[in-house]
Specification:
heterotrimer, A: alpha/beta, five-stranded parallel beta sheet, B: FAD/NAD(P)-binding domain, FAD/NAD(P)-binding domain, 27% helix
């Protein structure tokens, strides 16, 4: 009997949503386990790191790694899985572009520690205990992984073959990606798999309703508007990032009247998702006067957070360049 | 010598040789000269070069020269990139030679980085159809049509109303002449009728327009006239027609039947039936001896082709809302345009100023109605023609009725055109009483008559003027037709609501989109002279296109990669030339760029959220290559 | 470092106005610091915010985007689009820890060589005070 392909799934700095997304395959999980052997999946199966280390190099057909590289352990595991795998897939927004944890890159590592262990209002830390890299306990040395200066997408530390977008990827996207990986014809290295080559508008039912010229005079936040479900949300002043965001999710959020927040990330030709999104949104604000323009932009409390919500770590600057010690 | 005086040219050339993809680097004193160009061509042949960087003077000077040079060597002319190391380096940094040389190396490195990514580009030439479509048969449209036809170019002249002549034919008198509007225009209307190069479609509208400069395809809808050329104007039909409506040609001052001749000199000179008024009773058919009436006539559509379009659909007089200055509440409150009809010897009162049954003994003109923000509904701008027009009429009235007292209440007197200052002089000579106001006057209407209340700004006193007639010198508003026109022809609006010209001073009769011209008050208020000039100007502009015979399209236009385009339509609003539209591809939509309209600004490219829209020669990858090359670091 | 800080500023110059002004500064032999690396675009409306951030990433201490005056754009209104985009990006630079003065939008017509030289000198002075940006980008993994 020919051996089934081996699959590994691992989480770095992540919320667990990608694991849930995989479980969302529901009955298709059974078909999956018929097709492959899962050799490593900490959330569900009891394999240990040393089980992976014992595998021959390159023997895992594909490792789907979700989560970003935040601590040294993430880097270590990513490098291990890279050695042991033929194909590495950055699964989900965090591993592909840093995801929401990537927003921490707006602060330096010291600031993050200080905030978490000294400044948070709900904190009780009277002795000012700060996590250390190593500590002696009863003659033994215990080590904690170190916080890296920035959260990184995994392709900054290892070679990545494919990307599956989404926060999390939908079950259908995941299934299509897995089928692609198991097929005979693999797409060019570096491709995004399981999703569309076009932006969300291509599959959005409201795309047809746009007037000839898409222009807005005001920006609204979702709690300020009860959207008309028959009209494009962007034309109603809501910040729908659909035009800049890869499709493949069947526009689930928009169909629930919530504007797209961009979790499927950029299209192939875009180098900096946040900058491109900021460009298209500002372009359609139909005002010529600088003051009037500023007034409308004022309504956006956090443009960087809004436009780079999932992609800050992969952006041109990667995060803040402020000297965090000053 | 120019450049070498500051920059160490040899050092730059040596440096260039170290750059990736550079197989040959040379220097020459005058690269743009014949020997210099030979050097380039030899290098191309010897090293099988496929991209050229020329580091020299500004591309504005010699880019075409070098493009032609490499084309002669068999390369596509767009595989050239220039680095401006003279105007941008040698000539401005002579005080810092070392740093100037370093900067020059940077500029060369950036040019090489872009050159590597250049692609061959094709120039597109569109053949010019030497025919015009002129929309609007008023002064501007008639003038433009005639000028073009006399040059030998064919014209399709489309007019919405049953007759040409526009608004100027309805003027009672023309300033500085004894003629009425229709007398003034008669020669030009006749010339247009008889010119074999002009086909006039009255009672017609432009329904659809496709294509772009050089080859527009238009659909003209010809609305039925219901009366044919057999009509002898015997007027039997008019006698028996039971329907009477307000006559729009007299601005509501008279009535007409459903079947009517618009005015005495109307062209074509036959009756027409107003389908909105006609009740199809058929009485007119019974009495029409020549059998010219066909009540069942249907509209029909004609397709035409044109290389250029002239829009000349004119303006609308400002219509005061009911009650403003008493308008609509009394027969005694008239607009300037209505006054023109009363003073026309072919008008409803045969040129006698009879209002409410008698000749007024006292007339108050209120100027700037609908202009200069005098009322809430008024436009903020000055309508240019009303001062001279009003003064002309005041003088005419005084000539006819020397006993009548005339008051001219003005915010400002703007008699700027030739001879018009004389009107002002003559008006004062004829004892017309000028009263300046800052605060807008008020008009009280009661059963006995009308009275005007005004605060005289010079005397600083409140006056009450009892008047038999009040004439409101109304300004010009954008025509309500513009919405329909703009839905068919893609032209932008100015903030005032008129059509917007490409540049208010340097290109006043052109729309931003190539091949579309704007004549007359469609862009802003104008008097008859200015309208006529604009008509001629558009004809001149259109004939430039026709004389060239072809239209050269920019090769560096925007282009859509349909495999990536989601049809999000963000780009469409970015284009001031209307060059982008959405087309259907199977079940999906994608953007489409009309290369003939694209002027290659790149505004749509920067807005495109997916990168599907790119600009040839200025693609994201090409510009980014220059950006990345600003430093020596080789970035991952 | 013994060498004084000489900034590197990327200048996106629109073909019809600013590029011509730079040429005029050249033919008039005006003098300004060799700080500006010019990237020509047909219109300031072509300048994609991605270019600006990449410029900072690749060692630019400042970015100057220059085009025609409002109302005079060769392509009617490209400069208004540049205004909208630059206004938005400048807002975002704050959070990135990049001083707003490092990104400048100027209207320089074809005859305003003097204005360009003035802006150039002013910007160089300002950036020198702010200091180099490049070292702050070396955040390693």
């Amino acid at each position: 009997m020919t051996e089934k392909p081996k699959i590994a799934m691992y989480w770095c700095a992540s919320c667990g949503g990608c694991e849930e997304a995989t479980v969302d395959l529901a009955e298709r999980i059974l078909e999956l386990t018929n097709l492959v052997d899962i050799v490593f999946w900490p959330v569900a199966l009891d394999f240990k790191q040393e089980d992976v280390e014992k595998l021959p190099d390159g023997s895992i057909t594909a490792s789907l790694i979700n989560g970003g590289i935040r601590v040294t352990e993430n880097k270590h595991m990513a490098e291990l899985l890279r050695r042991k795998s033929k194909i590495v897939v950055a699964y989900g927004a965090c591993s592909a572009w840093g995801g929401i944890p990537g927003l921490a890159n707006l602060y330096g590592a010291d600031e993050l520690i200080s905030r978490a262990y000294k400044e948070v209002p709900s904190l009780s830390n009277p002795d000012n205990v700060i996590p250390q890299h190593s500590v002696d306990v009863d003659g033994n040395t215990l080590e904690l992984p170190e916080l890296l200066p920035r959260l990184l997408p995994i392709d900054r530390v290892i070679d990545v073959d494919y990307y599956v977008p989404g926060c999390p990827p939908t079950a259908d996207v995941t299934w299509r990606a897995i089928k692609t990986l198991l097929s005979q014809e693999l797409p060019p290295k570096g491709s995004v798999i399981g999703a569309s080559k076009k932006a969300l508008c291509d599959e959005c039912p409201l795309n047809e309703t746009k007037p000839e010229k898409v222009l807005i005079k005001d920006l609204k936040r979702p709690h300020q508007v009860i959207p008309d479900p028959t009209k494009c949300l962007l034309t109603q002043g809501l910040l729908c990032l659909g035009p800049a965001t890869r499709g493949g999710c069947e526009a689930l959020c928009v169909k629930a009247r919530m504007p797209c927040t961009g979790c499927f990330g950029p299209l192939d030709r875009v180098t900096d998702y946040g900058a491109k999104t900021a460009s298209f949104i500002s372009s359609i604000i139909d005002l010529q006067d600088e003051e009037a323009l500023e007034e409308v932009i004022d309504k956006l409390p956090d443009p960087v957070g809004t436009f780079y919500r999932y992609t800050l770590a992969a952006s041109s600057l990667g995060g803040s360049v402020r000297n965090s010690k000053s | 010598m120019n450049i070498a005086g500051t920059i160490n040219v040899k050092e730059v050339v040596d440096y260039a040789r170290t750059l990736p993809h550079v197989v040959d680097a040379n220097e020459y004193v005058f690269m743009c000269s014949a020997p210099g160009q030979d050097l380039i061509r030899e290098s191309i042949k010897r090293f099988e070069i496929n991209r050229v960087v020329v580091a020299a003077c500004s591309p504005s000077m010699h880019e075409p020269t070098f493009r032609a040079a490499i084309a002669e060597a068999g390369l596509n002319p767009y595989l050239l990139e220039m680095a401006n190391i003279r105007e941008h380096s040698a000539w401005v940094h002579s005080h810092e030679k070392r740093r100037a040389t370093e900067k020059t190396k940077d500029l060369v490195r950036m040019a090489v980085a872009k050159a590597v990514l250049l692609e061959p580009l094709e120039e597109l030439r569109i053949r010019m159809q030497p025919t015009s479509l002129v929309l609007g048969g008023g002064v501007a449209g008639l003038r433009a049509s005639l000028d073009l036809a006399e040059r030998g170019f064919k014209v399709h002249l489309v007019e919405k109303l049953p007759t040409t002549g526009g608004r100027a034919v309805r003027l009672g008198t023309i300033a500085h002449s004894k003629m009425s509007g229709s007398e003034l225009l008669k020669p030009i209307i006749d010339s247009v009728e008889s010119n074999p190069n002009i086909v006039t479609y009255v009672n017609s509208e432009l329904e659809a327009l496709d294509g772009s400069v050089g080859y527009f395809k238009g659909k003209i809808k010809r609305n039925p006239r219901f009366v044919s050329a057999k009509c002898t104007l015997c007027e039997e039909c008019v006698h028996v027609c039971p329907v009477e409506v307000a006559n729009e040609y007299d601005y509501g001052l008279s009535k007409r039947k459903a079947i009517y001749l618009p005015f005495k000199e109307a062209h074509p000179h036959i009756m027409v039936i107003d389908p909105a008024a006609c009740n199809k009773c058929g009485e007119c058919v019974k009495v029409c001896e020549p059998g010219a009436i066909n009540l069942e006539e249907q509209p029909n559509e004609i397709e035409i082709v044109a290389g250029g379009i002239i829009l000349a659909t004119g303006f609308e007089p400002y219509e005061p809302p009911t009650g403003e200055f008493g308008y609509g509440r009394s027969e005694r409150v008239l607009t300037l345009f209505q006054l023109e009809r009363l003073l026309d010897s072919d008008g409803p009162t045969k040129g006698e100023l009879v209002v409410s049954g008698s000749i007024p003994k006292s007339i108050a003109f209120i100027m700037c109605v609908g202009s200069l923000g005098t009322t809430e509904n008024a436009h903020p701008y000055c309508s240019r023609m009303c001062c001279a027009s009003s003064l002309k009429n005041m003088i005419r009235i005084k000539e006819l009725y020397s006993d009548t007292t005339i008051y001219a209440l003005y915010k400002d007197i703007r008699t700027y055109a030739r001879y018009d200052e004389k009107l002002y002089e003559r008006a004062t000579e004829r004892q017309i009483k000028f009263i300046a106001f800052e605060k807008t006057p008020a008009v009280n209407v009661d059963p006995d008559g009308v009275a005007v209340q005004v605060r005289d700004a010079t005397l600083q006193e409140r006056l009450i003027i009892p008047a038999d007639v009040v004439v409101l010198a109304v300004g010009m508003s954008p025509s309500k037709d513009l919405d329909k026109v703009r839905s068919v022809v893609k032209v932008g609006c100015s903030p005032e609501g008129f059509l917007r010209e490409a540049h208010p001073k340097l290109r006043p009769v052109e729309a931003p989109a190539d091949g579309i011209f704007l004549a007359g008050s469609i862009t802003s208020p104008k008097n008859v002279l200015e309208t006529s000039m604009a008509g001629s100007a558009t004809a001149s502009k259109a004939s430039i296109l026709f004389a060239k015979g072809e239209f050269l399209v920019e090769p560096i236009t925007a282009q859509v990669t349909e495999e990536i385009c989601s049809g999000c339509a963000i780009c469409i609003a970015m284009c001031p030339y209307g060059a982008i539209s959405r087309k259907t591809m199977g079940e999906k939509r994608v953007a489409e760029v009309d290369r003939a309209l694209c002027k290659a600004c790149g505004a749509c490219v920067a807005a495109c959220p997916s990168g599907a829209m790119q600009q040839a020669g200025f693609k994201d990858t090409q510009v980014l290559a220059q950006v990345v090359a600003i430093s020596e670091r080789r970035n991952a | 470092m013994s060498e004084p800080f000489e900034p590197k500023i990327v200048l996106f110059a629109c073909n019809w106005c600013t590029y011509a002004a730079l040429d005029l500064a050249g033919t008039s032999r005006m003098k300004y610091p060799p700080t500006f690396l010019v990237i020509k675009v047909m219109c300031s409306g072509r300048v994609d915010p991605q270019f600006i951030l990449e410029a900072f990433r690749n060692g630019a201490d400042g970015v100057l985007v220059a085009g025609c005056h409002p109302g005079d754009c060769h392509y009617i209104e490209g400069n208004y689009k540049a205004l909208r985009r630059i206004t938005m990006i400048r807002r975002m630079l704050d959070r990135f820890g990049i001083e707003r003065e490092r990104l400048r939008l100027e209207w320089i017509s074809a005859s305003e060589a003097t204005k360009f030289v003035h802006v150039a000198n002013e910007m160089v002075k300002q950036i020198k005070v702010l200091g180099p940006l490049a070292p702050r980008l070396q955040v390693s993994a």
